[in-house]
Amino acid sequence: MNRRTQDIDAVVGLRMAARRSALGLSQTALAVQLGVSFQQIQKYEKGANRVSASRLHQVATVLGCSVADFFPPRTDDADPMAGLHALTATADGRALAEAFPRIADPAVRQAVTRVVAALASA
Question: 41 or 98: which carries more pLDDT confidence?
């Protein structure tokens, strides 16, 4: 079996980073709770390293969510990476994706999400 990372590893990492950030946890704080280095958290969040099933369960427990929350909803005809690819296809999208998890205030993150959604449907 191939042990290289897959596209889904990047999605899991992004969702893990978003959840951690939404809770106001630093990579170091999460790493301490998991018993790993903050560099390992960085690798997970960037999709450079795969997260084992047992570690993903541990992450979900610490972050107060389910393992399923780290995966995109699956439809038969949709590419689970389509939204991520579309977002990161432009410099503006990459800047948005990189900056969003650094917004400390959850209410501000929700407001930004509503603004982007409203602009997208306009």
Answer: 41
Domains and their CATH numbers in the chain: 7-121 (1.10.260.40)
Q: Which residues contact 36 (CB under 8 A, 6 or more apart)?
A: none
Residue 9's CB is within 10 A of a number of other CB atoms, namely 18
Amino acid at 88: T
Mean local confidence (pLDDT), 74-93: 69
Locate tokens 């995109």: which residue?
72
Q: Which residues of 47-67 are buried (b: 16+ CB within 10 A; e: fewer)?
A: bebbbeeebbebbbebbebee
Take residue 111 and report the two structure tokens written for it. Answer: 């407001």
Categorize the per-residue pLDDT at 1 as very low, low, confident or very high, splitting at 50, 70 and 90: very low
Handedness of CA 95, 24, 14, 47 (dihedral sign): positive
Contact 42, 27 (CB under 8 A): yes
